[in-house]
Specification:
The chain is mostly helical. It is 73% helix and 0% strand. The longest helix is centred in the last third of the chain and has 43 residues. The protein is elongated, with a radius of gyration of 21 Å.
Length: 94
């Protein structure tokens, strides 16, 4: 996980607690491919072009992003647990 990402989450957590760790809205998804475009993509891929290597690269990238997402979720959970523990300690300590 990149140190900049952790710093960004830490700043957001300090500023807004757990609400600061909520996912930000994503940009809208591109329009779905129509049947003609899908057929053309399959034809190109089956023609032995480099699209298969691009597909392998994309799958590896997705796997890395999924692993990174799991780490991000775990960090958010740990930060949330730490915040709750700190709040309990603070409120019971008077």
């Amino acid at each position: 996980m990149a140190a900049d990402t952790v710093r960004k989450w830490r700043r957001r957590f300090i500023a807004d607690r757990l609400d600061g760790l909520a996912d930000k809205p994503l940009s809208p998804q591109p329009a779905a491919m129509d049947a003609e475009g899908a057929g053309a993509a399959l034809t190109t891929a089956s023609a032995g072009s480099s699209d298969f290597s691009d597909l392998k690269k994309a799958r590896r990238r997705i796997a890395r992003l999924q692993a990174e997402l799991a780490i991000h979720k775990r960090v958010a959970q740990l930060l949330g647990d730490a915040a709750l523990s700190q709040e309990r300690t603070t409120s019971s300590g008077c």
